[in-house]
Amino acid sequence: CALPILELQPHEEGASYELGVAYLNEKRTGDAKSEFAQMLAQNSNDADAHFGMGLALAAEGNDPAAIEEYSTAARLDPDEGVNYEMGISYAKLKKYDDAITVLLKDRQQNGDDQYIESALADAYQAKGMKAEAQDAQRKAEQLQKSATIN
Q1: What is the rounded average pLDDT for all residues in the chain?
Q2: How far apart are CA 110 and CA 42, in angstroms?
Q3: Cα(39)–Cα(36) distance, integer angstroms
Q4: Alpha-carbon span 129 to 9, nearest angstrom
Q5: d(CA 59, CA 44)
Q6: Does residue 75 surpass a pLDDT of 50?
Q7: The pTM is what?
Q8: What is the distance between the alpha carbons of residues 8 and 29, in angstroms, rounded to a whole number?
Q9: Which long-range contacts (CB under 8 A, 24 or more apart) does 66-70 make?
Q10: CA-to-CA distance for 48 and 70, rounded, in angstroms?
């Protein structure tokens, strides 16, 4: 098994989530969905399980269902940090206003992040908001440079 926590403590809280994420990283979406579904069967109010299921659904290209899972995770745990992923799914569906809204919320909650800024730049550009897109892209590049230096 690739994850030591699963070898040592297979019933450790969080181990199932980590296994599901590992499956996603290996492009084993079906296995990931199965792992997250088992978590939800044990506790339908598990924000991590809903977030993980959202990631799996997005990996399959089912962004509407992914957004539902992300929304549930955010409702159950406002600190879950789903806004970036939700913004990406909204952008894929060409719902740029919704994408911008949740990405800005993510920025407000988590501070400066090059990935948030880059996603904002893409959403602004798609919506025709050129000045905002340029500002966000510039900020993303600055954040990337400062991350490279550190």
Answers
A1: 90
A2: 30
A3: 5
A4: 50
A5: 21
A6: yes
A7: 0.86
A8: 24
A9: 67/93
A10: 10
